[in-house]
Description:
2 copies of one chain form a homodimer. Chain A is built from 9 helices and 15 strands. The first copy, chain A, is α/β, with parallel strands linked by helices. In chain A, strands 3, 4, 5, 6, 7, 14 and 15 form a 7-stranded mixed sheet that branches. Chain A has a 6-stranded parallel sheet with strand order 10-9-8-11-12-13, sandwiched between helices. In chain A, helix 2 packs across helix 3 (158-169) and helix 2 (129-142) crosses helix 8 (283-295). The relative contact order of chain A is 0.15. Chain A binds chain B through residues 59, 61, 224, 228, 243-246, 249, 255-262, 264-275, 278, and chain B through 59, 61, 224, 228, 243-246, 249, 255-262, 264-275, 278.
Amino acid sequence: LIEVSNAAVVLKRYPDGIPTPADFSLTNLPIPHLSAGQVLIKTRYISLDPYVRGVIAGRHMGHQLALGTVIVGATVGEVVESNDDRFKVGDCVLGSGGWQSFWAESASTMRKLDPSNSTPSTALGVLGMPGLTAYAGLIYLGLPKIGDTVVVSAAAGPVGATVGQLAKHAGARAVGIVGSAEKADLILGEFGFDGAINYKTEDLAAGLARTCPDKIDVYFDNVGGATLEAVLAQLNLRARVVLCGLITQYNQATRPAGPNLGPVIGARAELKGLVVYDHFDKLNHWLKLGQTLLSTGALKYREDLSHGLEQAPIAFERLMRGDNIGKTIVALP
Amino acid sequence: LIEVSNAAVVLKRYPDGIPTPADFSLTNLPIPHLSAGQVLIKTRYISLDPYVRGVIAGRHMGHQLALGTVIVGATVGEVVESNDDRFKVGDCVLGSGGWQSFWAESASTMRKLDPSNSTPSTALGVLGMPGLTAYAGLIYLGLPKIGDTVVVSAAAGPVGATVGQLAKHAGARAVGIVGSAEKADLILGEFGFDGAINYKTEDLAAGLARTCPDKIDVYFDNVGGATLEAVLAQLNLRARVVLCGLITQYNQATRPAGPNLGPVIGARAELKGLVVYDHFDKLNHWLKLGQTLLSTGALKYREDLSHGLEQAPIAFERLMRGDNIGKTIVALP
């Protein structure tokens, strides 16, 4: 190895509200020492995800990140040393390296990526956890039918954009809720949504009535809060609501109240909690389907790509503010 | 007919909060004149139900009761005049007469009751809409399995008591949430629940932890509010929550906020809106099953029985305050 140390971003203090770069420190750690069965990987792409805000706060699946710890996250990288026959130097892999330049991981928890794939960062987005979240949540919980109206929030993000495009493939109408005119144009244009609501400039109830004249059959919720409440008021009978994310509350210290559930009774609707970890049995199917759709141009994606580890805290703040467009990824040299 | 007028209770003013007798007027209306295909019935039993509070307020299935109108409700009575071959004088019938001494109804919307049934008022409770609500909601939406823990609120009421007993028959544990020591004794004793929580004297979270050591697989919610929020925090993976009633908010002028839905995601739970009107296809099956269980003593019920039409507003206030025990019924002479 030419490098003698491992640049990393660690948690400096627990953020109050939206995390800013001042909550993180750039530091140099030793290059990890490999145990038996482990592989050392040089990081190429780091995935930044909203759930990490919950991990930091101790509200994600029971884990909390300790101060001084490397920020967690999925990563794509290149094997530089291997103690396992399944991986050799030069292999491109997907693992859980977090915000650092090198990581060591057990061979058993990693996946080798196709070396012919010219866009390995998609393993962090449309062909990774966000894409699987969209696919499994929409198809297995949302149960869209031909002619249904499917609404998704955070629609320009990697999950939302995939939900809308898969809804179209299922024969449904797709309506996206976004937070800027640029995102509205993106989902209507490149992603082929039938309707878009910019909740920062249009009343949500009016926007839903405008874009969903036949009301709402499926709502894929990435945000919670007032958006969820507005959608519940316009559900069709027997509508399905996939509860995937609560980004409106990730940066709050306490859990706010939720929507009044009277309309759920009136609509005989179903609200279903989605955790993507339950659906990894569908990953191979999704990789095959997603790759096919990508290769024909029937599925598209965007990346919010930054370069350099020091950019990670800045990109994370942008993600938490909703100022990103597409999957937030940090590329390392 | 000996009677020349029809004593009735009408809405005098829209209640502010819990309805009191001052919100109603006792009046005399003409005996209804029969149209073709209609039947005239003398009222024997009137069902008082929480949903009527929503009808008065205009928040139940889009209907609102006008001032001066007879209060609605299911009724059991005896045919005194018939313009339809399917009903003859003396038949005992179930219909929708509301709070009055006589009612006229189309033969097509009524059901003849078995004259050998010595307890025809059960057609308003355990063998009527409340019983069907419990049966269909628990079995078709709650999906209880052997060994599951089923929690139900308003557990001493006609829906809740039936839910708990049917949960036991399904091989599940039954835990009821009630508002008095007397009700707790009733559900533990007569109704055979495994656990009871008196939310007025025990912290709900502590009570649920005490009675549900293996957490909660099914929650049948009749109340909403803080009770629902407390239950969501102790759900098992893939729990089912049947949203049946919101009695905590029926007497409020505006719809309060609901529970934070983060725990629903964490538990991968499903919240399902229940409206009994969707389940009348299961009525005959329930009548058969329920009658069998009643006849062997495997299913029990209680009635909060008042005598005389003038008692209806008093009994309704008692019901809205949760001071009733069992199905609220007014018997007419």
